Amino acid sequence: MYQVFEHTADLGVAVEAETLADLYAEAGAGLFAVIAGDLGQVRLAESETFTVPGSDPAWLLFDFLGELHAAFELRRMLFREFAVTTTDDGLEAVARGERYDPERHVLAHEVKAIT
Predict the structure, then answer these.
(1) 89-106 as b/e: b if 16+ CB within 10 A
(2) Does the chain have fewer CB atoms within 10 Å around its N or its C terminus?
(3) How many domains, in total, are found in the chain?
(4) Mean pLDDT throughout 29-42?
């Protein structure tokens, strides 16, 4: 479960999950809820696999969200569903969504950086 909240001049996302893999998946959905607002407008038309190395859970989360943010900024991908597997060496995530279409998607917020 994720919850978007206002924080000073920024927005934040609080995430809770029963497993670390689910936490990463929820954080990914939370990021795109900030970007796109209503994730219901995002179709599950394409999938993309992300492999992120790392052993520290906090840095792994930071790097994973950075990869997702780059996918939006560079390829204009909007994702709404994530299947994440974690190992001692990192994570692999399959993200499902579609490319941003200004005719169909209303974006909510610009995310400048993951912090």
Answers:
(1) ebbebebbbbebeeeebe
(2) C
(3) 1
(4) 94
